UniProtKB/TrEMBL annotation:
This is Uncharacterized protein. InterPro entries: FRG1. GO terms for molecular function: actin filament binding. GO terms for cellular component: catalytic step 2 spliceosome; nucleolus; striated muscle dense body. It comes from the Eukaryota.
Length: 48
């Protein structure tokens, strides 16, 4: 559910490469990268 968005009666899934997440995990910026992905998908006040 973290990377899904229900809009226009269709489920939209983030199609970005997961390799970026693995690189971010190694660099130690995983949570920041996850929030960036979430802010692109959802209009959520907690991720801005």
């Amino acid at each position: 559910r973290k990377f899904q968005k229900f809009q226009d009666k269709k489920l939209r899934i983030n199609t970005e490469d997961r390799g970026k997440l693995e690189e971010a995990k190694v660099q130690g910026i995983l949570h920041e990268t996850l929030l960036d992905r979430r802010s692109k998908m959802k209009s959520d006040r907690y991720c801005k």
